[in-house]
Amino acid sequence: MTVQEAELSQALATGVIEGLITSSATGADNKLFENLKYYYNVQAWIPKNAVVVNKKAFAALDKAQQDAVLKAAAQAEERGWKESREVDARSIAALKQGGMTVEQPSAQLKADLAKVGDTVLKEWTEKAGADGKTILDAFKASK
Known about the structure:
Elements: H1 8-13, H2 24-29, E1 38-40, H3 55-60, H4 63-97, E2 101-103, H5 107-142
């Protein structure tokens, strides 16, 4: 079932849903501790942003400009991951303060979620074709 974030608290309060998978930030922002007792920190939704550059435009820059762009990108990436970790830590603290029990996922839950992820990736790759597979392979190689 899809429930918009703005309707989350009401859906929980009225029994339309009894649980969900979401980020710690959404949980804290929506005071999910008012309706739920447990938060399993599966880290399914960790805020990320991406900046895309036109390959031709980047190649047209001189070496010094390219280096400056890459340096700024590395600094932005570092700041972004730091802020993401800080938001997650603050949000988990807010969930606990609201009375929620925060647990790490069991090995079984992790395995089950990994199976769901594999299915989603397989379906996406089939739809995305060769270009999608190339992107996915590059992403996997960067980890």
